[in-house]
Amino acid sequence: MLGKVVLSFVFVLLLLISSAIFIGHPDIRSHFVLKSLNQPVQCGPEPPIRVYMYDLPRRFNVGMLNSQSTEETPVTAKDFPPWPDNSGLRKQHSVEYWMMGSLLYERDGDSVEDSRDAVRVSDPELADAFFVPFFSSLSFNTHGHTMTDPDTEFDRQLQVDLMDILNKSEYWKRSGGRDHVFPMTHPNAFRFLRDQLNESIQVVVDFGRYPKKMSNLNKDVVSPYVHVVDSYTDDDLQDPYEARSTLLFFRGRTLRKDEGIIRAKLAKVLAGINDVHYEQSFATGENIKTSAQGMRSSKFCLDPAGDTPSSCRLFDAIVSHCVPVIVSDQIELPFEDEIDYTKFSVFFSFKEALQPGYMVNQLRQFPKEKWTEMWRQLKNISHHYEFQYPPKKEDAVNMLWRQVKHKIPAVKLSVHRSRRLKVPDWWRRRR
């Protein structure tokens, strides 16, 4: 009797299950789980990176902007000096100044416009990263530009003094300098002791002069140069393609070292072409204004490699809304995890660019509609390349801090591994 009851129960249960399958009656728990997974995830903005900035004497930073000043107390937001208008080409390497200013700036409230990707903390125990406000690029340009002048000793001594300060810091020793951020956008910045920063986060414009163990994409941040031409703020022509009469524009030094040799070769390839402007020029105030006007009246702006793979000219072109033509086989570009440069730039290899007629013919055949869309893209993204004080949301300095934040997880991994290793790091020996 009991067996018949059990069989009947099993039969009824199987019947119910079959009915549910064929009729399509959903399982309540499955329905709940699927509904939960399909709900939109409500995510707030990512919290800013917390940065501790060393209070260095002014001779390491803003003191170099005024040779008459003897003030040594660390600079504050109240006496942070403006960047000098007559700085010329030094401006292109001034990223260090704007990054420092972004941490000094004291905001009123938390408006959308004031949203920031880095906040300064006074307690180093709360910091995700440590910013070292040494203007190493300005130091080279001020004290060691000729590299043989006796004044270059000032540049070397500043580096020695800075490393002495850092080597006494418990936070430098705690991480081996891995979580310390150094802006070094001039290729000769920190040239005497740069190998002592191999583990640190370096803010550079490219990797042209450094071995991989010293500077690489895994740990370092690629920055734009600070553009030297004025931004094109009223570029609202109805037909910008036809309004820009020059096909391809370049003004700058044509005699360069290393990869920059390409410039002299391009001068020969592009000579005598009517709607191509290729001219040797030096960066005086008047010449910079002339270059700005030339970029604004050109469809394409040529950006060949300089002494290193990158050039300030790319960012001058971007803020002039002139479609960049990038000729550099080893260039690395800033913010490339967020920005697709192919949407507003054209790329040629050295080999392609030096083939007589090839590059110009490609540009002549470039569809007007595609160029116009690139022009619109330039107008939409150019604010990401603006360095300014006070800083603004999504500007260059906030983009840089976001890039630094992306490096922190790998930094923490490296620090934690180094603390427990009892033998030489086998992982590094494998590479």
- The percent range for helix content is 25-40%
> SSE string, helix = H, strand = E?
HHEHEEHHHEEEHEHEHEHEEHHHHH
Q: Strand pairing plus helix content: what structural class?
A: alpha/beta
Report the β-strand fraction as a percent range.
5-15%
Identify low-pLDDT runs. Answer: 19-42
What descriptors fit this protein?
globular; alpha/beta; 11 strands; six-stranded parallel β-sheet; 431 residues; five-stranded parallel β-sheet
Q: What's a concise summary of this model?
A:
With 431 residues, this protein is α/β, with parallel strands linked by helices. It has helices at residues 2-23, 28-38, 95-104, 136-143, 152-167, 170-175, 240-243, 261-269, 285-296, 313-319, 350-353, 358-364, 368-381, 396-420, 426-429, and strands spanning 49-53, 118-120, 129-131, 180-183, 201-204, 221-222, 246-252, 276-280, 298-304, 323-327, 346-348.
Molecular structure report:
- This protein has about 425 residues and is of the alpha/beta class.
- Helices cover about 35% and strands about 10% of the residues.
- The chain has 15 helices and 11 strands.
- Strands 2-1-3-4-5-6 form a 6-stranded parallel β-sheet, with helices on one face. A 5-stranded parallel β-sheet has the order 8-7-9-10-11, with helices on both faces.
- Helix 8 links the parallel strand 7 (about 245-250) and strand 8.
- Helix 4 runs antiparallel to helix 5 (about 150-165).
- The termini are far apart.
- Mean pLDDT is about 85; it is low at about 20-40.
Task: Describe the secondary-structure layout.
Blueprint: H1 2-23, H2 28-38, E1 49-53, H3 95-104, E2 118-120, E3 129-131, H4 136-143, H5 152-167, H6 170-175, E4 180-183, E5 201-204, E6 221-222, H7 240-243, E7 246-252, H8 261-269, E8 276-280, H9 285-296, E9 298-304, H10 313-319, E10 323-327, E11 346-348, H11 350-353, H12 358-364, H13 368-381, H14 396-420, H15 426-429
Parallel strand pairs: 1-2, 1-3, 3-4, 4-5, 5-6, 7-8, 7-9, 9-10, 10-11
Helix pairs in contact: 3-14, 4-5
